[in-house]
Amino acid sequence: MHTDMSADLWKSAASVLDGNWAHDHMVPSRRLYPHQWSWDAAFIAIGLAYVNPTRAWRDLRSLFEAQWPDGRVPHIVFDPLTAEGDYFPGPAFWDVPAYGNRPARGSTGLVQPPMHAIAAWEVYRRAASHGARCAHEAGEQLKWLYPRLVAQQEYLTGRRDTGGRGLASIVHPWESGLDNSPSWDAAMSGVPADLGLLDRYRRRDLQVADAAHRPTDVDYARYLGLVINYRDGGYEDAGLAHRHAFLVECPSFNAILAAAELALVHIAAVVGADPMIHRRRARRITEAISTHLYDERTATFRSRDVRTGTLSPARCVSGLMPLLLPDLPREQAEAIMAEAASPRFGLPGTTGLPVPSYDRTAPGFDTLRYWRGPIWINVNWLLRRGMLVHGYRGEAEDLREAMVRLVHDSGHYEYFHPETGAGIGAPMFSWTAALSLDLLADRSVPAYAKAA
After folding, report:
1. Does the predicted TM-score (pTM) go above 0.85?
2. Of 10, 28, 370, 412, which is least packed with CB atoms within 10 Å of its CB?
3. What is the pLDDT of residues 81-99, one digit of tens each?
């Protein structure tokens, strides 16, 4: 990698993160996402630790200060200094009651993938590399976060195991982080699309983003209907199978759930807790993913509709994410690599670009629309991490170089055109900038892969 290119990218990434800091947290982007997002905060902390570790810890703590009493970490924490009209669906639509010492309407009631234990461990590792004093200070941060991270995991592995198979269910596509992925199409087809909701509630995203890049009105009406159903049930998870139209076990969400337990193995050792609790739970989740979300016929991982028991027919980037897990059977890891290298996704060795969010050969592949084709840096970062876990070092380095080159050439965009590499969506996007810093630093094999 050219030295000047790396230096330029490092400088621009650090500038994006500095510009998106808001009081005590990071926003994903100033115009389109003016609040704090859950899994964004985790990815951001990983990179922010290189340039401002104090802010990295503050961002994670700000998020977990909004944790619900049941352990869930809301997918958005609303900034009280941001006007209601600046983002939809905003605080009034979610109408979350006050909890703990949090004011009413301070967050949403959904969750996102639990990347936070992974982030906390990575921020700690970065601090520990600077000596005993930094390690001690970072250890104090871990002590504060650890019980909250455990509560998050227990919520997801307990209340959200709606299928009884040892997997967490998502109750809304937004919870996956892969909002309008084709992986949800089959399950979403049974969700009523009340387009009248869009007359009552005006979409804010289309005022600041191209409609061709965003979810359709039909999708959005279904999203709002699912929120209303969950909200009107008091955001209660008991009995969801009987009253909620969307319950899905996602391979990406659950792979991150298991990887978080592996990060907690190391965090527990630092804070003086029992690491084996987390090791056992990681193995159980990995086994459940391997058993219930793997399609033997096509040798791919797919999401499962809890209500019907059927696997999604769509081949999406979410199906590559179980590669994160060191206990995944070897033949399944090899199948993921074969899928990633196939014309459907085309690793950088064949395309020169990171992998897209959806099967390139599928009739519905869309080069512009959000998670239905474009390239996203965060899932490619996770895929590279999985490659390193399973020893695919050459492929991991190719992917790292492709990501760095893409962001350097096109900018710190939210996502990228899967054929031209042009930036799409929000510019100056925080997790793209943060993960660029981590890719430039390149600390190689994730520590959790060595968990005993």
Report:
1. yes
2. 10
3. 999 988 999 999 999 999 9
